[in-house]
Amino acid sequence: MNQPKTIKNVLLEKSRTIEAALAQFMPAAGGPFAGHIESMHYSLFAGGKRIRPVLCLVAGAAVNSDPNVEQALLPAACALECIHTYSLIHDDLPAMDNDALRRGRPTNHTVYGEAAAILAGDGLLTFAFELLARPNPLLSTDRQLRIIEQVARAAGPEGMVGGQHLDITYENQSYPFSMLQTIHRSKTGALLTCSVQIGAIGAGASPEAEAALSAYGAALGLAFQIVDDLLDATATTEQLGKTAGSDEAHGKATYPAFFGIDKTRTLAREAAETAKAALAPLGPQATQLYQLADYVVSRSR
Amino acid sequence: MNQPKTIKNVLLEKSRTIEAALAQFMPAAGGPFAGHIESMHYSLFAGGKRIRPVLCLVAGAAVNSDPNVEQALLPAACALECIHTYSLIHDDLPAMDNDALRRGRPTNHTVYGEAAAILAGDGLLTFAFELLARPNPLLSTDRQLRIIEQVARAAGPEGMVGGQHLDITYENQSYPFSMLQTIHRSKTGALLTCSVQIGAIGAGASPEAEAALSAYGAALGLAFQIVDDLLDATATTEQLGKTAGSDEAHGKATYPAFFGIDKTRTLAREAAETAKAALAPLGPQATQLYQLADYVVSRSR
């Protein structure tokens, strides 16, 4: 038997798979739309962690050991990364967080201008749905449609976009912890949870397994966001590849602002434990998801 | 037998159907995301002409007389209007055309601010795909997926968004007529053509009928855009409900700039004739599409 892979190796291997698939799926920067396509490539191929697509693939593998599952899920996994990248481009715009640095590079609008950056985001969001809808011989049309609906809900007005609207609306205002939870759940949690869910749907998980993975995804999304808040408050800009201390500078409520650093660390670990506990019904096939929950809490960027 | 309806009555009746369906499908402006949803409602329910969804419904009826076809197509028709509205909100932004008036009202960013307007557009675009992917008992999953893919392609990097990128890139520059054609085909033509195509797909058109409708849609899209250029140059702001003379003010090439007003009128009529000729294989069921082509050329806003 092979040595079990460390989670870092799994992440590295899967993120390479995603890079290759993104490069294959994205239109090449040629022809009349080369300028627009180049501006999308700039942000998409900037070395993100690829957490969402990796989660999708690993969740699929946790409920179905058929090696075709990864191939079946790749377009959806890449669509998640396109949507995540579009949200970063728009969040960074001067009208939003006005950030100059992202993934260790100047932000999209800094390089291509505001108008082109808005359109790069629009293009990536729209292209994500093309990827999700393209004929996929490894996925039934029923499952493909369910996945598209889930992604649209998670990214839409009552998910990620709605959360971003709350985030900018409540800048520099004091609000109760329940609002922070609503913002986190919608702005970051919804798409992370969705990443796990569509892995489950694409892999044909049983309703019980799908429920377990949904619970895992929700808790993992929370852990992820708490750690994001922590890193913003404690890490350096160089470590993060984006401007550190941005939350405080924008008057945004965060877990550390509500609870202090130490209690926040505890809450992140607790959320990861909740995520791991949700995996119990899945047995040893879910080991990598289990390890991913620990990784999310220990990550440094 | 009933009197044949005039095309104006058809447009009025179908646009009322669309208004009612949009009101039914859109999330209500309540709950935590009320502010975001309200900003989407503001632009969506501002009395647009609803040309794209009407085209979709009328194209469906032209190839399939089953009264269920309209019901089957309504979510897709409404999705087209959401996508068109998002494109208007983003086009009007200060970083793009910086327009203050749209559909006879202050533009979205003028009312809600730039950040909320960017998000209102993002929300409408994402919600459109939710609408397209929701379970639809009147449409096979195969057809639903084909429709989603078509819409994503028409609205995406090599369609509407790519066209808008060209449009802003070439502002105040001189370029050949072939580039104007590329911009028109992608920025406006692609989604108009798609509106007809998805009506055909949803109604189960034969490949021959689908090809005829695609040719119709492409020619109609061209006629529509030529008339848009004409109206921008000749109508008043009051008539248009948006700032007249905007093309010239932004240094945009248009049909009148290339050909003068009279020749442009002729070209619009020719495009409408091409559209009508493409309908020949469909017979008398296509009468309303035939009349719509004439309407598009004669419209005053």
TrEMBL record, chains A, B:
This is Farnesyl-diphosphate synthase. The lineage of its organism: Bacteria, Pseudomonadati, Thermodesulfobacteriota, Desulfobulbia, Desulfobulbales. SUPFAM superfamilies: Terpenoid synthases. Belongs to the FPP/GGPP synthase family. Its cofactor is Mg(2+). It comes from Desulfofustis limnaeus. Gene3D superfamilies: Farnesyl Diphosphate Synthase. Keywords: Isoprene biosynthesis, Magnesium, Metal-binding, Transferase. Pfam families: polyprenyl_synt. It comes from the Bacteria.
